[in-house]
Amino acid sequence: ITLPQAPPPHDEILAYDKPAENTAAAETEKPGAGITVLVAEDHPVNRKLLTVFLEKAGAAVIQAEDGQEAVEAIQAHPVDVIFMDIQMPRMNGYEAAVWMRNKGHTVPIIACTASAQQDEKEKCLDCGMNDVLPKPYKRQDVIDMMITYGRQYKETQQHNALTGVADDHRPNAAAPERMAPDPEVFDPFFFSDIMMGDLESAKALIGEYLEQTESHLAILAEDLASGNSNAASQTAHLIKGSSLNITAKRLADAAEKIEHAGSVLTNEQKHRLLAEVHTEFGRLGKALAAEGYR
User: Fold this and answer.
1) Rounded to an integer, what distance in angstroms lies between the CA atom of residue 35 and that of residue 130?
2) Omega of the bond prior to 136 within 30 degrees of 0, cis?
3) How many Cβ atoms are within 10 Å of 38's Cβ, its own excluded?
4) pLDDT, tens digit (0-9, with 9 covering 90-100), for 235-294
5) Which residues make beta-bridge pairs with 2?
6) Is 0.70 topped by the overall pTM?
7) What gap in Å lies between CA 167 and CA 160, rounded to an integer?
8) pLDDT tens-digit profile of 195-213?
9) Is residue 146 a contact partner of residue 108, using CB atoms and an 8 Å limit?
10) Alpha helices, H only, 92-151
11) How many CA atoms lie within 13 A of 175 on its CB side?
12) Domain spanning 10-163, CATH class
């Protein structure tokens, strides 16, 4: 994540008193003055181009190289509008937008895409985005959207602050930092797709999974302690399969190590592998709680 550059030290401003005042006055006259923009774009040239357009218009720009960095940035920094590329590694623009909306963020999101298809625009809007900016980027289009959405949102937030209305989950010193989901521990977007958005059924399934896995972990410990490698392999296989079904890849990987270990494990290795499974199960529990599944 790349943050806006800090202003010059106070003594530097005093050393050039008159020019600094003129510069400050000119900055406030720029259309993007006072607006903070998050640019989420994995291509460095495209990211730089958007940043130049926006900064030249007076906006402060925070840069993110993918959707994962974007959701981390919005939790740490107040922004007034987001320019979100669609095709990005780790977490794409659709997933990042859905995550933000599910967490209550109402900041405007502008989808950046090279596709001119109507169904592409509809998909962006369905994910909670506000508008679509076509590629290649045109300077005036970028500035117009920044002003239209960023200025309106900022004014709304300022009004809410004066009237005591909640301010869209903007970070403050008292608020605990919340990290973005790790899809290797639990992928909430993929799991939601699997469950077709049925939250109640998803919660019921997770509850049953947790209950069964706790039971399987106890059995696995007994299998390993008794030296019954075949039984341990079968129990680990059950844990792996059910974990993959709910997108808990790291727990599944840990269970797979025991599944394929055979009968050559030392007691120390058994304890280490079992501890790894329990650790990943604990991480999964925290991830599920953070996403509202328990």
Assistant:
1) 17
2) yes
3) 23
4) 999 999 999 999 999 999 999 999 998 777 888 888 889 999 999 999 999 889 888 887
5) 63
6) no
7) 6
8) 887 888 889 999 999 999 9
9) no
10) 93-102, 118-126, 139-145
11) 13
12) alpha beta
SS3 assignment for 191-242: HHHHCCCCHHHHHHHHHHHHHHHHHHHHHHHHHHHHCCHHHHHHHHHHHHHH
Domain residue spans in the chain?
Answer: 10-163, 188-290
Task: Yes or no: say if 146 and 118 are a contact pair by the CB < 8 Å rule.
Answer: no
Query: Would you say 259 and 236 are in contact if contact means Cβ atoms under 8 Å apart?
Result: yes
Q: Which amino acid belongs to residue 294?
A: R
What is the amino acid identity at position 38? Answer: L
CA dihedral sign of residues 139, 145, 148, 153: negative
Cα–Cα distance for residue pair 46/83, rounded to 1 Å:
11
Rounded to 5 degrees, what are φ and ψ at 63?
Answer: -105, 140
How many other C-beta atoms can be found within 10 angstroms of the C-beta atom of residue 146?
27
Nearest to 258 by CA among 280, 278, 235, 279: 235
> Tokens at residue 129, please?
């985005």
Instruction: List CB contacts of 30: < 8 A, sequence separation 6 or more.
Output: 57, 58
Q: What would the two tokens of residue 207 be?
A: 């509850």
